Amino acid sequence: MDAIGNMSGSYSSTVGLFVFVITIFGLVWFLKRSKNLPPGPMSPLTILTLGEESFIKLTQFSKDYGPIYCLRQGTSLFVVLNDITVIKAALVEQAEVFSNRLTSPGIDIINDGTKGSILFGKGENWKEMRRFGSQAMRTFGIGKRSIGKKISEETIPLISEFLAQEGKAFNPNDVINNAVSNIICSISFGERYEYDNVEFQFLLSCLQKLSTSTSGLTMVNLPSLLAKFLVHIPPFKKRVDLFKSIQKFVSTKVKEHSATLDPNDIRDIIDMYLLEADKQSTSDKSFHYDINRTWRFVQDLFAAGSDTTSNSLMWAIAILCHYPEVQEKVFEEIKRVVGVDRLPTYEDKGNLPYTEAVILEIQRFRPVVPLVGRESIRDTNLSGYFIPKGTVILMNIWATGHDPLKWDDPYDFVPERFLSPDGGRVSHNDSHIPFGIGRRVCLGESLAKMEIFIFFSSLVQRFRFKVPEGHPLPSLEGKHGIVFCIDPYLVCTEPRI
User: Where are the transmembrane segments (predicted)?
Assistant: First the structure.
């Protein structure tokens, strides 16, 4: 007990020191602050009080300070963009200024640096990784019928797993996560994994724990020495350990590929990267490719291509339980257009406007990435305000999807808002940006759209989802970590055919 008490006291002292340092830096920054900054709360500790629902509180601040406002954390300036107009002004009209992804000494430590990273990379290195990533995705069928066929093939074992539950209560998270991850695994690693593969289940568990851990705004732009200290104490050390576990798995796959590489038989993106790195080794692009960091690029693709889509589908099933009338309308449309003798394909989407509208509304209602961070690379002006170099830019996607000026009853679930008056076609809203906007729009957007549509429509065609008798409906509150995840829930599936 004494040891526990000492640990608790030590942790409290550390937190107290951290708050003190941030406060001092904040006072220094306040005295030196630039003129004509966006309005906002004056306290340098505001970000520390945001909690897990940071995107909701940031949306609430916009009611007092407008669509663009600033927050302070120590010496750092955060500017929050809360409507589509200011977001486009920044990420589209000034794309070069705001194209850097948000990083910091703390984030760099957790992610083992940014070189070769398609998620956290900057400057010319990121541009080259983005170019290569786009080429690699096209090479392996993204946006083509071939990848749609692969997704449809994965739907069959997914449905079998649901049938195996025999109507009993279960958490669908693991089987959905496995099905979605198998798509990006087949592209990245050249193989898929059975749903009972222990090693792969451990990997997916690490990825999910990392995604649901703290979003890390408090780690942004901390001094390097303080960041190096914090990553050795909870909860930050846990994130580093999870990251290392994923890195170990991917690095092992890279070593296996290096040992069996055949330039005449490119199996997957790992092979493609290794060959590109070798090709560029004698060119001026050699700086961008490092065979020893192949894992960094592949790990980003795997992580981004797994957890976000899985979470979208988990939100989808939970929402269908809340709105059974919506579930039935989706099924009736699929039955009328596709029938029940075959599974829906991506080519059916144009003839299933209500099904697509439900998916769009799910993404608006509960976006899995409600906050996206950027960083200004130089001084600039935005919407009449001065934005200094190094400012953290937070794109509040939750706010754009719940803006009462753009959406009627934004906190209600209404798929019809994405339909034409006659219900015959999908009607889009420019404030709907679940995959981001600008130069760093999600690289896997087309893949994610195909996965969500095929998996979602196939599951609704085959099953009626409901909560087990005596259980509450799934909570729609969620938890915001790296992504916005739904809390675990149980569901029963009733076969329709």
Answer: 12-31
